Amino acid sequence: MGEPPDRRGFLKVATCCVGGGVALAAGVPVVGLLVDPAGKQTVSSGKDPFDLGALSRFAVGAPPTRVEIVAPVVKDAWTAATNVVLGAAFIQRTTPDTIVALSAVCPHLGCAVGFDAKAGNYLCPCHDSRFALDGAKTTGPSERGLDPLPVKVVGDRLELTWVRYKLGQTSREPA
Amino acid sequence: MSDREAGGPIAKLATALDERLGARVPSVIVGGASFAYTAGAILTFLLVFEALTGIALAAFYAPTGSDAWASVAYIEDQTTWGHFVRGAHHHGGGAIVIVAGLHLVQTALAGAYKRPRELVWWLGILLLMLVLAWAITGYILPWDQAGFWANQVEVGIAAGTPIVGDRIKELALGGNDYGNLTLTRFYALHVGLLPAVVTALTVLHIKLARRHGTTSIKSGPDAPRWPDQTLRDAIATAAVVALLITIVVSSGGAPLAGPADPATAYDARPLWYFRWLYELRELAGSAEQIAAMVAPAVVGGFFVSLPLLDRKPDRAIKARLLWLGAMAGFLALIAALTMMSFARDSSNTELAERQAKAEIHAARARYLAKTNGVPASGAIDVFTTVPMYTARTLWAKSCKGCHEDAPPGAPADQQRKGPRIGPGHGNRVWLAEFLKAPSGDAFWGRTKLGKDPDAAMPAYEATPEAVADMAELLYAESGAMDIDKAKQERGKAAFETACGDCHSLEEGVAGSGPGLAKLGSRDWYFHYISNPHAAVNLGDKSEMPRFDQDLTVVERDALAGYLVWLRTATAQDLAALGPL
Questions:
Q1: Are residues B216 and B31 in contact, defined by beta-carbon separation less than 8 angstroms?
Q2: Which residues on chain B are in Cβ contact (under 8 Å) with A43?
């Protein structure tokens, strides 16, 4: 009671400052560590194109062939695994020289799309989006059609570059 | 106080303790005890129950991409109480959502959100939301198809948030994609942060509820909490536990789908308490992103703002029909959407087929995990532990189409094109049959070679004994040990005249027909698969593609080993290998 009010005020501010400093000392490293992976390439596989085998494997005019994209090595934070299935693609050889490769990742929310042989189109099992043979969306909530993947014929082999695109938007941006 | 002090030694001890602890706060239920006040006790019990079952599960669980599924399958199939404890933990979470929901409705009906209890109400709503988030963080931990794909959708919705969506996704996944850091993150949330926060808020919620007392719905004489109310709490909790155990046992515990596989489609469905949102998204079509974000915000916002909207002190139901009606409307909508979602699925026969397949897949994975163990390389590799996995996979991919009979009713372009290969291929019986009719349907019959009488091999027309002798000679080339020497010698004597024009038994030598040295051995199969068009094999008469570029040495050798195994295998042996 005998203390002058400005002294009390100083004590209050000082307590808050010291306490805030302690909170920062504890909080900065913890939050810093927790947000560390944001923006990092924590799961990575080589960017080289994948060899899908001999071109003759894909018959002209046949229904789409589902191929698994198998990365020789995938680094996942602290582990390295060999022959990891990254996802799948559908390959269709419409003419001897035209290869259509579609990612089986649904552009809506990332579920794995299957080929519905009965209906002759693609179906996503999560929210029932359907896609025509050329990948165009026909029904369902997906914002865009299936994503085409770059393919190249090297000699008599077919090579594919695996790309993951951002989900849930009309434009096609690599993730 | 005086009648407590007058008690026996235990009461005296309690009093002495309380003098030091100060924990015993006399608590009185205004208007008398009631079963209507038991929800808080049930929820507290369920939270403790989830903590205990959770700790037991955590003692077995490994939150890494390669081990998570394996450890959960181990808990399920190879521990004494694991199946029950995991089932109880899973359904216990559902029980919390139900009881908390009822508690919320009951509180609203009693008008207990009104001044001065707004904070109790808001804390309760916050706790319910945290419990729902808790369930989401737990659903992905088994790293099975169900949790993995449901999480893709949930994180996908969060990633649709304007501006910060991408950041949210990176923080949730622990980087750019699903992996080890995703699991450790959700695990840290599930067993670290959320329990701590929920515990702290629950303590505060109870403390504040006690401070304000129950909003009395009875008008009898006041009763002490202990033991009048606590007995009712215990009975109600026991009833819930009995119901929970019944559900755990009758539902077969918690589901566990096959290991997470980013390449295989799966019909992801959220936990049942999110099904109304799932259905709303289905109905909303292209506006679904809005539905997924706006609907929970509207419902949550309504409950949060209830004490602000309905400020009159009157707690009579009649005076609050508008607000209670709105609440009833929301709840009815949620219930209707939930039922619609389940009805939609149950009327979808194609979905049922896919789900049945997924269940077989999951059961297979668990069977293999239990019998063979899960490779350290990851749960998905559990399928590679079947006998001769590499060879059989290659067979299914590269050979089966031409060398196995198609199932009945298959279209013409899927029919077998080459010689049939199956159990017993290359054994004595097979060789004898081949010698008698090389262009028979099971042999070269479906090939150009078999259809061309000039190029095709003529049948070996001889007595059954002579055919058997020749078969023995060729059979011995495979390296088999059970050779009848006498027969082999007789076969050899006949070979030069009968076969020598086109074939040779000398290594590396071919005539117009393939060389037969080491026929049917692993080495021979390896070279034949590598290049059927080699001069020592069928030359340009073969229609089979060469595989020395598409398959590695190891792969071709594995196939050759499989073909050797087939020679002595029966159809039962083949079936005993199980599906791939």
A1: yes
A2: 175-179
Q: Domains in chain B, please, with CATH?
A: 29-268+348-359 (1.20.810.10), 398-576 (no CATH)
* Shared-domain flag, residues A8 and A33: yes
* Residue A127 structural domain: 43-160
Q: Alpha carbon B41 to chain centroid distance?
A: 34
In a domain, A168, yes or no: no
From B250-264, B318-332, B541-555, the region with the lowest mean pLDDT: B541-555
pLDDT of amino acid B286: 67
- Tens digit of pLDDT for each residue in B134-179? 999 999 999 999 999 999 989 988 888 888 988 999 999 999 999 9
Is the model's pLDDT at A85 over the cut of 70?
Answer: yes
Select the residue from B170, B399, B544 to test the A interface by mutation, using most A Cβ atoms within 10 A: B170
Rounded CA-CA distance B16/B4 in Å is: 11
Looking at the predicted complex, does its ipTM rise above 0.85? no
| Portion 3-32 of A in contact with B at CB < 8 A | none
For A:88-147, CB contacts with B below 8 A are: 88, 104, 108-114, 124-128, 141, 143
A54 and A125, same domain (yes or no): yes
In a shared domain, residues A50 and A35? no
Q: Does A163 touch chain B (CB under 8 A)?
A: no
Residue with tokens 């003098």: B19
Euclidean distance between CA atoms B147 and B259, whole angstroms: 10
- Would A115 be classed as within a structural domain? yes
What 8-state DSSP symbol labels residue B518? Answer: T
Inter-chain contact B265–A81, Cβ cutoff 8 Å?
no
CB atoms within 10 A of CB B480: 17
* Residue A170 belongs to some domain of the structure: no
pLDDT (tens digit, 9 = 90+) per residue, B299-335? Answer: 999 999 999 999 888 888 888 999 999 999 999 999 9
| Nearest chain B Cα distance for residue A148, angstroms | 16
Residue B29 and residue B37 in contact, taking contact as beta carbons nearer than 8 Å? yes
Read off the pLDDT of each residue in B398-405 and give the average, rounded to a whole number: 92
How many C-beta atoms lie closer than 10 Å to residue B172's C-beta? 21
Q: Between chains, do B281 and A127 touch, taking CB under 8 Å as contact? A: yes
Asked whether the predicted pLDDT for residue B4 surpasses 50, the reply is: no
The CATH number linked to A133 is 2.102.10.10
Place of tokens 């595989």: B547
Q: Residue A19's pLDDT band (boundaries 50, 70, 90)?
A: very high
Q: Which residues pair with A50 in a beta bridge?
A: A160
